[in-house]
Amino acid sequence: MLIPQLERFLTAKLNENKRQNRIYLLFWLILSLCFAAVYIGLGIRQGFSSEYVIGDDAREYISWMYRYLNPELFPNDLIADYFQSVTPIAYGGIYRLMMSLGVDAIVLSKILPIVLGLATTGYGFAVCMQILPVPMAGFLATLILNQSLGLHDDLFSACPRDFTYPLFLAFLYYLMRGSAPGVIVAFIIQALIYPLITFIELGILFLRLWDWQNMRFRFSQQRQNYILFGLALAAALITVTPYAFQSSQFGPTITDAMARTMPDYFRGGRVSYYNDNIVSFWLDGRDSGLFALLNPVQLLIGLLLPVILIYQPRFSTKLKITNQVKVLLQVVLASVAMFFIAHALSFKLHFPSRYTHHTFKMVLAIGAGVVLGVLLESAFDWVRQTQSNKSIKRILIYLLTAIVGTALILYPTTLKTFPKTLYVVGSAPALYEFLQKQPTNSLVASLAEEADNIPPFAKQSILVGKEYALPFHTKYYAQFSQRMTDLINAQYSQDISQVMNFIDKYRVKYWLLERNAFEPEYISKNTWIQQYQTAAKIADSKLLQGSNFVLSGLIKSCSVFESGDLFLLEAECIKKG
């Protein structure tokens, strides 16, 4: 009696008329949420390990948002103005609302993964139930998906892309359920937070205007498909267009021809888009590849889904994959189409991999859950139908199931780091506290990497910073590059007048130097500075010659603050020589 109950527990199919099956559903859903909560907890624990901790990419978006509380912050700040312009409306709105309620932006960025992760798990489980109504399959699908999210900064970055997973899965769920209001609401929210994915969703809705019958494409006979596509298209025009115009003040996007002349787009650069290996470029390039960042290997189980569908009659007769599985194919087709369109338009639609990295991960995870669910029930069917050695075969099936299940669950424990959060820990708390006490127009010039942390932690503007050196819009990056060139030239200048002119031009209040800033290998080992080739080569040559620079001789006399290997020089003191 125990064995049939165990098999039913593992492969029970949902039946709304059976209370016991609803109990199975609740159990597997809660278990899915528990695993998600554990993974999320491990991540946010890192986020709260110190007072000055923030997501790597979050610095780009979070810093300027403190203007909501104090409009005088970051005055005439190129970097803050740029990232404010490219921040999606609803994403900024969420932070503005929560900050008005007294929640700090950095703290909010650390607790958002809880909401996003649990919502992703809930909707992922629900989508799987629409395809194969076996709760255990939903558990496996969300387990694999959450493990995949934990291998990359897909949930802890506090960036708009983190919202992709719950919103896209919500879109798929309501689409499968035939809920037009749910589809449109999920679509609009997606468009207002991470517009890129709306192109894929539009593609899915467009594909649903066609039916494949008798080896021919025919127009769909379902009126709702046309209504949904029309409403979504109108919503996209209304929501995405203002976002495009908002960022246009910083120029059009970089073209392919321009990018190929910029070190930023090659190996060691800020973006590292192009790759000498053409196969790697198209298949697994981080920003250019069709299958970028698709791991763990468990996701590949989802590739067996087409085989299961083709030979479905040979598998379990008890479990039937529903017709909603076609939505996964529509997701793949729309994603691949947008991938090649993004390549053709060269950066106008951002990086091509953004259109497959997220959606492929979700499709493969759900596919893997379905495949494992069908295979397990098929194995039980095989044992039931066999006439000989039934006990031995059942033991083998249970043993194999236990091994596979244990391997899937314990997989994260085999990794050195899980989850990967890419949190950045500020290494100069005393510096941030000193700068917090200065006037809001205290612009800091620096080539030090620590400068990236000054905007979010000290609430002060910086002239340049590696984290903010995004070469996407021409006007922004032209100004940024000029600042960078001027800063390199001034920092390694032997002419006090050149240094003074630089300070006056950008109204610099402080100059942050590293202890090794004037050592021979400072520039040769810094790939970011080397991207600004002309200025970097001249400065590197001077360093190798052992030249005496204006700033190196003023460190002791003009330092107003020293912390570890950092010196903060006052600009007015520098001008006095």
Give a description of the structure.
By secondary structure, this protein is mainly alpha-helical. 57% of the residues lie in helices and 6% in strands. It is built from 25 helices and 8 strands. β2 and β3 form a beta hairpin. The longest helix has 29 residues. The termini are far apart.
**Structural class label:** mainly alpha
Return Rg in Å. Answer: 28 Å
Give start-end ranges of low-pLDDT stretches.
Answer: none
Number of helices, counting only DSSP H or I runs of 4 residues or more: 25
| Head-to-tail CA distance between termini | 91 Å
Total count of domains: 2
Overall 3D shape: elongated
Q: What's the β-strand tally? A: 8
Average pLDDT metric: 90
Strand order of the largest sheet: 5-6-8-7
Helicity, as a percent range: 55-70%
Strand content: 5-15%
What's the story with the biggest beta sheet?
4 strands, mixed
Protein name: Glycosyltransferase RgtA/B/C/D-like domain-containing protein
Organism: Dulcicalothrix desertica PCC 7102
Keywords: Membrane, Transmembrane, Transmembrane helix
